[in-house]
Amino acid sequence: MSKRSNILPLLTALVLVAAFIALVWWSPPGKPRLEVLGEDRVVLPAPVQVFLAAGDRYLAANIENFRAMSSGTEANLPAEREFRLRSFDTASQLNPCHEDNYYVANAILTWGGAPEHGIDILRRATHCRSWDYSPPFFLGLAQNSFLHDPAKARASLELAATRASSEDQASSLHRIGVMMEAGSYQSTAASLAFLRHEMESTHDQRLKAMLEKRVQRMEGLQLLEQAQAEFEQKTGRPLQAPDELLSSGVLQAFPSDPMRLGYEFEDGHFRLRSTD
């Protein structure tokens, strides 16, 4: 074998090392180089990790996800939180379909103080895992809870319903989406009109039955609000207790709640009683 053929692998290795160093230390104008976020807590850019994994981005994603999930002894320190944020995000860039990554990132980031980053990872997983209802389900909950956008939340839950494994599961996802949007209306009348429209337009009999109960419950709340307004107009004073509606003759009986949760009177207003 010639000396030239012996030297070729060495030259190739040197070129690869030089390329790796360039990838690590070069950055576009205005962007910082890699940050050391704590002892041994460096997160390499996704292209560098693909390079180190011999071009296998799935292997690179597995390795980075393992690093993110194995971190936890000092999870409350700023550097450690920043490491986890970047590590989960990089693993998502490498493989947005990674199930463990989106699932754990949702728990640690979305519900752990970094919802915008967790939501980005859930969006990628929703697009990538076109068969899986879980990412859009988690995404809808996050959009409602942290972005306060019930319309987008419902759209995500409707998408999750199209991926459901059973009719019961699809109905539950439809129901959650509808109730999220219904809860966004400021007045009982607007919420009631929305629920009636949904009940009349759906062809899902399970959802229709559920909405019928919600409509009846909301009608009961509207009846109490109207009775309170009539009482206060007649007496010229605020309602002090619900029983005054009966003793004054404004109401003959309190409305029944088909969901058996009932109503409550707090701070001078009737409200739907919840299980919270």
Automatic annotation (TrEMBL):
Protein's name in the database: Tetratricopeptide repeat protein
Residue ranges spanning the membrane: these are 7-26
Alphabetically list the UniProt keywords.
Answer: Membrane, Transmembrane, Transmembrane helix
Origin species = Lampropedia aestuarii
User: Does the keyword Transmembrane helix feature in the UniProt annotation?
Assistant: yes
